[in-house]
Amino acid sequence: MSGGLVLYDLPGPRARRRQTMLAIVAGIAVLGVIALVLYRLNQQGQFAAQLWDPLVNPSDKDFSAVWSLIGNGLANTMKAAALAITFSLSVGTVIGVARLMLGKWSRMPVVGFIELFRGLPVVISIFFASRVLPDMGVNLSNWPGGEGLWFVVIGLTAYNSVILAEILRSGVNALPKGQREAASAIGLSGMQTMGLILLPQAVRIMLPALISQLVVILKDTSLAAVLGVYPELLNSAKYIYLNLNNPIQSLIVVGTIFVVINWTLSQLAGWVEQRLSRSTRSPGEETDDEAHYIIDTAEMRQ
After folding, report:
1. Does residue 1 form part of some domain?
2. One domain, residues 216 and 234
3. What domain range is 28 assigned to?
């Protein structure tokens, strides 16, 4: 019997019939809700051509202007997300490693910083960056991309760096304690153990959570539209539907773009995870001996 069946009993005929009936009922209910929504939208004229043509009909007079706005908004969103992801990963790694390696009392300021920004909503972090920094005399208007971009990047980095630090800490703590002992036995320092042994393995463990948080960073760029500090994708959609009076249509298009980007990022994450798994597995082997892996890796990189 395979290991996957030990902890799970296959359902019998009666259970399978019950599951099938529940699936059919749930499917009918979902289809009914969708049909009701479409019916109400149709009654309100939301499928009228004049509302959709600026978004889907290239011959419409507003089509080029609309998609120029969407393109600029998408470019701004990707720019802000790329910068926020880069800074969040860098700062988060430093914070996470500091929390892991510092002593009980010396890491208290780091823990306080993490708990402070982890408890703040992202929109408040962006709001503080856009209001407090200018009041403190910090002038970001001359920075590349303008101050609006950096308000968003700073706000997103302040929040997401501490989340990524906690993800890193969880990944390292999930490794067997023998990893550190084996590294210490061959004479590696604490920093060498962290950089050469623990972090590379922790990355594989925390990769799904890491990618999920990167998707969150991309989506959180839309919070800039709430404050109106940066012309990202959602802000562009807002400008479009205020002029064309088609909020549902504009938001559906923008939402679809976000879904496609996030799905692509998730697929890329799965591909990277598979490549990392294959790169640390010998041909014909399903698992590695952890102690041998540590010693061989450390000796190879010394």
Report:
1. no
2. yes
3. 11-44
CB 81 within 8 A of CB 221: yes
**What are the structure tokens assigned to 34, written together?**
């969708």
For the segment 261-302, what is each residue's pLDDT rounded down to a tens digit? 888 887 887 777 777 666 555 444 444 444 444 444 444 444
Q: In the chain, how many domains are there?
A: 2
Question: Which tens digits make up the pLDDT trace of 25-38?
Answer: 999 999 999 999 88
Q: Is there a domain that residue 79 lies in? A: yes
Local confidence band at 193 (pLDDT 50, 70, 90 cut-offs): confident
pTM: 0.77
| Residue 5, in any domain of the structure | no
* 104 and 215 housed in the same domain: yes
